[in-house]
Amino acid sequence: MSEVCVKVALRVRPLLPLEVLQNHKVCLRIVPDSNKVTVGSDRLFSFDHAFGPTATQDEVYDSCVQPLVETLLRGDNATVFCFGQTGSGKTYTIGGGNLGEEGGIIDRVAENVFSLLGEKNSDGVETKVRVTYLELYMEQLQDLLESHNTDKELFISKNNKGNTVVVGAKEIVVTSAEELLSVVEAGNVLRHIKTTGMNEHSSRSHTILTLQVVQAFPHNNPSLKPSCSSKLCLVDLAGSECARKRNKDSRHNESAHINRGLLALGNVIRVLATRAQNNCKIPHIPYRDSKITRLLQDSLGGTAHTLMVACVSPSHHSVAETVGVLQCADKARHIRNCPTATSTH
User: Fold this and answer.
1) Is 63 exposed, middle or buried (0-12, 13-18, 19+ CB in 10 A)?
2) Residue 244 confidence (pLDDT)
3) Which CATH number fits domain 4-337: 3.30.470.20, 3.30.750.24, 3.40.850.10, 2.60.40.1260?
4) How far apart are CA 67 and CA 215, in angstroms?
5) Which of 38, 140, 323, 341 is 20 to 30 A from 213, comparing alpha carbons?
6) Which residues contact 148 (CB under 8 A, 6 or more apart)?
């Protein structure tokens, strides 16, 4: 079983118009013709990809996400998750509901998956795409494909193949990019999004959009498995928010839950990176410290091809938070996963 490292892409957003008016200074820069970034005058970080403020949505997708879609259709699991401080551009990067040039990763995945599946269908491969869309808010899982008035509980569990699943989540079969994005838009209406001290439209929850692709291959080709099932998880993590910058009201509890979950995620990344760097066995990985780390267990140290998109602000006002994101992303690059193709038989 071959190992692959988690890939990390850094994305630096532009200074916002208000930040320019308030004379914010740029505190980090991409080193030209490289995947390195400098912070201040003495800190240098290297990543698998580095995108500056002028990078387009197409550049981000084509460079590091599109290969994962090809991986998905070969039968392997894959994950893309956006990580960073609130207001750093995560939700813009992940996208959802916009097929134009400003559309993000979800929009481009929708088009790419169904385009490639159309080619496979013409070769006699029968395919089906199932979608689940979940929100983790205040450590409670909610189904974004169901009204929040629906009285049902969701449970994180392992299936008979050892993969993480959410029992009770509603699945919808979609047959086109437009249909998939319609489902995402309907789910986004139910998301917890509020104004905070740092972001006018801050995501107050983590969201996990999962595409499960089932492929049944022609029986007259003995070189192919009869059928396989693989999944792609697209995760928009809520942004961390420094206590001195967040609103002093009921949102304090939301921020506390978000930061505790992200702290648990950082601990998992640190332990897995230490294990990989020192080539040692660590008996306990603290996945169970939060629900978001349990949900990402297949993606970090598990069986998926994983890409972390680390989003940061260039403003000197956020330099401490930015360095924290860069340090966590640097550790994530050392994590090793063991992707395996999954047969349904």
Assistant:
1) middle
2) 52
3) 3.40.850.10
4) 18
5) 140
6) 142, 190
**b/e for 84-93, b at 16 or more Cβ within 10 A?**
bbbbbbbbbb
φ, ψ of residue 9 in degrees (nearest 5):
-115, 130
CA distance 28 to 310: 14
pTM across the whole model: 0.91
pLDDT for the residue numbered 122: 77
**pLDDT one-digit tens code per residue, 67-105:** 999 999 999 999 999 999 988 999 899 987 777 778 999
Residue 7 in contact with residue 306, Cβ under 8 Å? yes
Higher pLDDT, 240 or 79: 79
Report yes or no: 39 and 316 within 8 Å, Cβ to Cβ: no
Q: How far, in Å, are 79, 111, 119, 170, 173 from residue 183 at the CA level?
A: 19, 14, 23, 12, 10
Tokens of 304: 């998926």
Flag whether pLDDT at 221 surpasses 70: no
Burial class (CB in 10 A: 0-12, 13-18, 19+), 149: exposed
> Does 173 have pLDDT greater than 60?
yes
- Provide the mean pLDDT of the chain: 88
Res. 215: pLDDT tops 60:
yes
Query: What are 9's strand-pairing partners?
Result: 49, 309
Considering only CA atoms, which of 53, 180, 30 is closest in space to residue 105?
180
Cα separations in angstroms, 120 against 83, 123, 128? 33, 5, 11
Q: At what angle do helices 66-73 and 105-122 cross, to 10 degrees?
A: 40
Could you give the CA distance from residue 332 to residue 67 in angstroms, rounded to a whole number?
19
Residues 6+ away with beta carbon under 8 Å from 72: 78, 113, 211, 213, 230, 231, 232
Give the model confidence (pLDDT) of 115-167 as tens digits.
999 888 777 889 999 999 999 998 899 999 997 666 778 999 998 888 899 99
Query: What residue has token string 């269908």?
Result: 121
